[in-house]
Amino acid sequence: MALVKGHGVTAVRLLLVGLTILTGLLAGPQPVRAFSLFSGDSAREWLTEKIEGAVESPDMHLKLGAIDGSIPTDFTIATVTLADSQGVWLTIDRLHVVMSPSALFMRSAKIDALEAASVSVTRAPVTTQPAAPSDPNASLLPSLPVDIDLKKLVVERLDLAPALLGEQAVLRIAGSVLLEHGGGALNANLSVSRIDDKPGQADLVAAFDPGKNTLNLSVNASEPAGGVMARALSMPGLPPVQLALKGDGTLDDWTGKLTATAGEAAAPTGTLNADATIKKGTEGHVLTLAAGGNVAPLIAGLAGDTVTPLIGPRPTLNATVLRAPSGAITLRPLALTVAAANATVNGDIGADYNSLNLRWTVQAGPDSALHPLAPLSWREGVVEGSAEGALSALNVAVNATLRDLAADDPALSRLTGPETTLAARARIDTGSGGIGLETLALNAAAARAEAKGTIGGWGQTADLTLSASADDLAPLSGLAGWPLAGAVALSGPVKRIADGTLTADLTGTIDRLSTGTPADAVLGDKATLALAARMEPDGAMRLTDLTVDGRNGKLTGNAALADNKVDARTILTVAKLEPLGTALGTPMEGAATLEATARGPLDGIEAQATLNARDLVVQGRRLGATEVKATAAGLPATPNGTVSARTNMDKTPLSLDGRYALREQTLRLDGLTIANGSNRITGEAQVALDTLLATGRLEGKLPNLNGLSELAGMPLGGGASFTLALDSKGGKQAANLTADASNLRVDGEGGPLLTARKLTAKADIADALGAPSGKARVEMTDGNAAGNELRSVTASVDGSLAKAGFQANANGAGAQPVALDLAGGLAMDGGVTRIRLDRLQARYAGEDLRMTAPATILLADRRYEVKELRLSSGNARLAADLGLNGERLSGELTIDRLPLALAKLASPTLALDGVANARASLGGTLRSPRADATIRVSGLKAQQTTQAGLPGIDATADIQWRDRRLTLASRVAMPKNAGTLTANAVLPLVMDPDSYAVSVPPNGALEAAVNGTVDLSLANDLLAASGDRARGSLRLDVRAGGTVDKPSLGGSVVLTNGRYENRASGAVITNIEARLVGDGDVFTVQSFRGRTRNGGVLTASGVIRPGAAADQQLDIRLQADNARLLEIDLVTAEIGANLTLTGGFTNARLAGPVDIRRAEIQVPDRMPANVVDLKVTEVGKGRRARGTTQVSTAGGTRRVPVPEEAPPAASPFVLALDMTVNAPNQIFVRGRGLNAELGGNLRVGGTAAAPEVTGRFTILKGNLDLLAKNFEFKRGIFDFDGTQPIDPRLDLLAEATANGITADVVVSGTARQPKIELTSPQGLPQDEVLAGVLFGKSVGDLSAAEAVQLAQSAASLAGIGGGGGGILDKVRRGLGVDRLDFTQGENGKGGAVQAGRYVSDRVYVGVEQGIGANQSRAKVEVDITKNLKGTASVGANSETKFGVIYEKDY
Question: Is residue 807 assigned to a domain?
Fold first, then answer.
């Protein structure tokens, strides 16, 4: 057992001091005389004074009571007290001393008995003085001039107060001590036992014989639970404690063992085992120490909650220490292992203790107990160090490394990188405190900082050079909160002289700075930084020569704070505002200068700031010279000054002026004027800041609101005026507002947001800051809001917050006018607000809504209620009674016959149909809410299914919320008996009791399953418009587990007997079999296979990761082998492909090669005569009858017109393309006389919505039968250059020779706008080339039959290349007629050529010559009206025809 923290030892030492003084007197040259000194009272008082004075100090006061008996042989001191600055803390009653003075002649203080009746310790002493430095060479035992032989030591009762141990403890101490003078032999026996109601015993035996060089130690202590030792060590739970120390042998071969346990012996909670040996070797004495055990429970109370975990359950200490005969010490090594780290120390300590050669290492790994204490995460850390040389020139080096610092923080990890290191090298004089700092460098991935120089007097003086740099600021973006780029470097000297003056002169550079802020525009790509700072011993601080000089701006300044006065000035110059405007997102031009000053005592600073802009242009508006000025005086106590601004807006001066003054608690604003042309706002006000009561008046006359459009940020129109009057009579704030506007117009990006022929507003408020009351009314006439025409709108409120009534009415106009009729009341009582809705009727988008009974809304602190809310719309009904009272939730919600078509009221894009019914109840508490709901939906259809005439889906869902988990059981029945799906799920759902927000915890457990089978033929009705068809059976058995943020997928999706026909491409894929299997966090495409009609194969494999990052959700490989994916009349193609689909569900990438192995392209026999874009205007659009469909509305089921097809919404899915199309040959184009083989390579980029095709196709070989001649292709190139839409450039040349004339057909331009020319190397016109190749004649020498054949050939050419106005036009002009047409024969008849002229605007006369006998005919056409025409013709066979033709364009 032990006294608390050495306080009992202090008392014993004081007793020994007193006895030592007494012994010194007796051991003097005349001891007999000394005996006689104590015979009188004055002598006793003198002795008392000597002893008390010997120990007197500011924190130690010794008082001795009456001394009875014979001094010095046998006497008793009545009381002994020890006190500190707060009073007595130790009292000894009846201290009895029995001595043998004669032994002093033998230099021995023989004390036969030292007994105390009681010793009382009430608290721990208080120390106010700094602790005296300890002497490491001092002896553990006191060095006395005589031997101490204490035969008997007894303290009958030692009372330890609860303040020391937490409870009262009473002990008895007995023993004896023999201590030779000069630190010689020692023989001690001590026994301490508890004598109160709790047992406990401690025994100490110590014997040291210097003659034999032996040391024997024995300590045994044992206490039950709640004992003194457990309390002294503050052990948690105050367990039983046992302690045993045993050591025997000479100091050349000594062995010791220490064992300590806490807790029951059978299962101790804390243990300490230590073994020590001392052995003499050839090099000296070697001390070996091995200690370990579960030490943490033994010292947890002293170490605290922070340190205890760092020790861990199994710390170990192993040390081998050599003490050479010279006194030098060597550590071989000292190793400590705790939960926090492993530490080792090796090296030597000189015999004079004045030189060191030490190495140490500290390692903390991934399992270190330091991790929870660090503010940042890290994986492992290592500190290595050394100290070499004399203490006057000690070379110290430290290298520390932290790996993966802040790796879990994306922002910080880019700064720290994989390793963060700190390296220091210095030479230290421990005597003077001088440090020669070779380097102190901190290195991280993104930055570096270093200091070097000298330090004197442990920091009294310094001469350092500091440098810091970051070569790339991008890793610091996360810390800044916005993207950074560029580099920064700063360096310069920092000095501290003996008088305490600190100076710094720093310079630096900023390169290519990018912060996303206006600073980038000012600094440009290069800037320099310089400053000089000084702090003087009297606290004065001066900043001089501050300069930041960038490409586009410069900041200069200086500041001083001395003698409680400030003097600062700064100037910012921006040479060009264009870059600044770009950074701000507001186009600006011009230049600007900002100058600011602050001067004067700290209690009376005067400041001024002036901004001058030159040639200022903002958003294209020329403001010219602009000045903004502000002044302030009397800062900070009584600020007063002016604010003014001058500029121009739309060449009209815009100004702002005002004065302000703050006196005590009153702020006065006067002279406030804002002027812009004819618009003017004036006013003044006075505000008492302690009560916030204000008086004043603000008036505005704004006849031209358009002039304020720029200030408002939106186009305005009309005129307005307002008056606001403030009054604080009677200590209550009153306000009156009147405002009116005429021909008001507020425009947005898409048109007018609000228009009103007249708008007025009036409000009177009394006691606005106390119990507000009053009335307000707004009226609008002939307006429009958010696209709804409004004939009139009125809204008013009258009363106070305690009780007020309100109403609002709106009457619309137009085909489906909106309407609103709302009335109710509001009352506040004791923190409870009640809103009563007496009347609510509304109409919107043709739907009526009304409240069938009054409803009440109650609002209070943690109390919210909605009572008796009953709404109806047609046949639909809604009833709600919901409440929150404190922690309790309650409520019922019922929805009957709700048409899902009403979803359009929330969003016009929600074109749904069907009917929903729902029942829900709410209960429980905020921390454990409870809810039950049933939802039934019948006939659910979307717009697409309604247009397709599909029946709707029926679905049911049962929902339960219990114990913070939501359980869902649902069933979906597909139309046409196409299948049924069931879905069951259990997921976490919690409510925040403070914000009432409902959320799904990401780490909550998840259970879900979807099962069922769907017939894919159900999609055929939806595919009907495209002509596509599908069939097959899709079986779902999908499960999900794990947590919400990390779901674990299971189950499968299986497609069997699948078939898909694509009408556009003609592709037919059959025998489709697919299987997707859930595994962990992915769906694996276990198999996918289908066949095309030619036996080609399509396969797919890969994984789908629903919960992965947005760019890692898809990893699928698509393959095609000889698959016929084009099979229509015009094109047939077999394709091979090896593609990958990667990315996410909304942004994917399709990449890989596509090989066109063979393709057949058939050119139709008949093509349009002209390749042109037809501009069609549909006459009468909107008047055609549309089909009807049956839908559910608020008024019941009825038939309505089928909705017009909505424009396609922008797809949220983006498919990026990165494919190559390889077709080296076998791309055949045949038909209409064309027979060619093509080949080439293309690269497809862009997106599926906007592909970008680059590359080239060429005609490998081919010919063209044209004009009864065989034209051979000499050149054929199709160039794709990535244009949108895809439109390859053409470069084709075909050549034929006949009758000595060579004809070249040249095609150029693009596929959408081709240009076809018929040329000849002989330079002949196109009509002559045509006549010469066909007949070897000129056009003028052709016979009638040859002219017909020429026309037929020209039509054939036009059919290929377009342009009736091409060759035919040249022939028509050559023949001198108005109309020249060729018609091909039908039903076995030959063709014919027609020619004629208009003899007037409405009469045409012509001749038609057919091929064959009696095929001539004369024709007359007369235009009767715009759409009605009469015709008459007579043939060579006398056949006569009459007719009427009606034509209608559309």
Answer: no
How far, in Å, CA of 1303 to CA of 1319, rounded?
6
Q: CB–CB of 1420/1433 below 8 Å?
A: yes
Q: Classify 1054 as helix, strand or coil.
A: strand
Question: Can you tell me whether residue 1022 is helix, strand or coil?
Answer: helix
348 strand-pairing partners: 330, 357
* DSSP string of 506-524, one letter each residue: EEEEEEEEE-SSHHHHHHT
Q: Which residues contact 712 (CB under 8 A, 6 or more apart)?
A: none
- From 786, 814, 836, the end of a domain falls on 786
**Residues belonging to the chain:** 1450
C-alpha distances in angstroms, 1301 versus 344, 1333, 1355, 1356? 105, 6, 21, 20
Residue 22 lies in a domain: yes
pTM > 0.85: no
**CB distance 953 to 913 below 8 Å:** no
Closest listed residue to residue 736, CA positions, set 762, 710, 708, 709? 762
- Point out the domain boundary residue: 786, 809, 842: 786
148: how many CB neighbours lie within 10 A of its CB?
21
Is the C-alpha dihedral spanning 1011, 1013, 1018, 1019 positive or negative? positive
Distance between CA atoms of 152 and 169, rounded to whole angstroms?
A: 23
Alpha carbon distance 359, 318 (integer Å): 16
Rg (CA), the chain: 52
Q: State the Cα–Cα distance between residues 684 and 210, nearest whole angstrom.
A: 100
How far, in Å, CA of 177 to CA of 194, rounded? 21
**Structural domain boundaries enclosing 668:** 650-786
Residue 966 CA to residue 990 CA, distance in Å, equals 9
Domain count, the chain: 3
For the record, the structure tokens of 839 come out as 């009347």
Half-sphere exposure of 1195 (CA within 13 A, CB side): 7
Q: What is the DSSP letter of 1370?
A: H
Rounded-to-integer distance, Cα 966 and Cα 932, Å: 10
Does some domain include residue 461?
no
Three-class HEC string of 823-876:
EEEEEEECCEEEEEEEEEEEEECCEEEEECCCEEEEEECCEEEEEEEEEEECCE
DSSP classification of residue 974:
-
Divide the 1450 residues of the chain into consecutive groups of 10 and give the mean pLDDT of each group.
Answer: 42 49 45 47 78 82 88 88 91 91 76 92 84 51 70 92 84 90 81 88 90 90 87 86 92 92 86 93 92 87 83 91 91 92 94 91 93 89 94 93 89 87 94 92 92 92 93 84 87 92 93 84 88 91 91 91 93 89 85 93 93 87 87 92 88 88 91 90 92 93 86 84 92 93 88 90 91 92 88 93 91 88 89 90 87 92 90 90 91 90 72 88 91 90 64 88 92 83 92 88 89 83 71 89 84 89 82 88 89 90 84 89 81 87 86 88 54 46 46 50 48 78 84 79 83 87 75 85 81 82 82 78 77 72 65 56 45 59 50 65 68 62 72 68 66
**Got the DSSP string for 1253-1290?**
EEEEEEEEEEEEEETTEEEEEEEEEEEEE--SS---EE
Assigned domain for 654 exists: yes
Please calculate the CA angle 853-859-863 and round it to the nearest 5 degrees. 110
